[in-house]
Specification:
The longest helix is centred in the middle third of the chain and has 17 residues. The relative contact order is 0.16. The chain has 201 residues and is an all-alpha fold. Helix 2 packs across helix 3 and helix 8 crosses helix 9. It contains nine helices and two strands, in the order E-E-H-H-H-H-H-H-H-H-H.
Length: 201
C-alpha cells in the first residue's frame, strides 16, 4: 500500500505518515511553490546535502543549516572563505562533507552571478513541464525526467556544482515545479500550479 490514512483520516504516503516532523513538512511545505532566490538557493543546497542520506536527517538539521549558512542568503555565503569552511567542517550539527560545503559556496557565487541574467528563480522555473506525473504508487514516482536532466546541464553550464538530474528532480518536486503527490493523497493538486489530473491549474 502506497498511501496510509492518518489518525485525522487524511491519506499520505508512507514516508510522511508516521514521523510528526515529516508529516508536517508534507502537509505544509513539500510541493508548494517556491519562487524567491533565497528559498530556492536553500532548497538547492539542502537537496545537495541530502544526496546519499535520508530527507528526515536533513530536515532535522535544517535549523542548524540555516544558522551555519547565514539564512542561505546568497551574497553572504558567496563571501565564505577557508575559515568559514573550517568552521562548517567543525559544526557537528550539520552534514560535514567538504565537497558539499564547497559546492554550496560555489553555488552561492553562481546564484549571485545569475542576477545579471534571468536570475536563479526564473532559470529553475523555466524548466517546468507542460504536464506532471500522476503516480498511483510510490514505485511509479520517477526519479528523473527530461526536464531535470536539462536543468542539471544548464545549471552546470552556469557554474553550479552537485546538481545532478536526480537531485534536480527532487528539487522540482519539493518546490512545486512538478506534482508527484500520489493520486488519492489529500495533497494532490493542492499547490495551485497543478490540477489533480496532472494538467496545469
Amino acid at each position: 500500500m502506497s498511501l496510509l490514512a492518518g489518525d485525522d483520516g487524511l491519506a499520505r504516503p508512507a514516508w510522511a505518515a508516521t514521523d510528526p516532523l515529516m508529516r508536517d513538512y508534507y502537509d505544509r511545505e513539500w510541493g508548494m511553490p517556491v519562487r524567491d532566490e533565497t528559498g530556492l538557493f536553500e532548497r538547492l543546497s539542502l537537496e545537495a546535502f541530502q544526496s546519499g542520506l535520508s530527507w528526515s536527517t536533513i530536515l532535522r538539521k535544517r535549523p542548524a543549516f540555516r544558522e551555519a549558512f547565514l539564512g542561505f542568503e546568497a551574497d553572504a555565503v558567496a563571501r565564505f572563505d577557508e575559515d568559514d569552511t573550517a568552521r562548517l567542517m567543525a559544526d557537528a550539527r550539520i552534514v560535514r562533507n567538504r565537497r558539499k560545503i564547497a559546492a554550496t559556496i560555489q553555488n552561492a557565487r553562481a546564484t549571485v552571478a545569475l542576477r545579471e541574467a534571468e536570475g536563479l528563480a526564473a532559470l529553475i522555473w523555466s524548466f517546468q513541464p507542460q504536464a506532471t506525473p500522476r503516480p498511483a504508487t510510490f514505485a511509479e514516482v520517477p526519479t528523473q525526467s527530461a526536464e531535470s536532466i536539462a536543468l542539471s546541464k544548464e545549471l552546470k553550464r552556469r557554474g553550479f556544482a552537485h546538481v545532478g538530474p536526480t537531485t534536480m528532480h527532487a528539487l522540482m518536486e519539493a518546490v512545486g515545479i512538478i506534482d508527484t503527490h500520489l493520486v488519492g493523497s489529500h495533497r494532490r493538486g493542492s499547490s495551485g500550479i497543478w490540477a489533480a489530473d496532472g494538467s496545469r491549474a
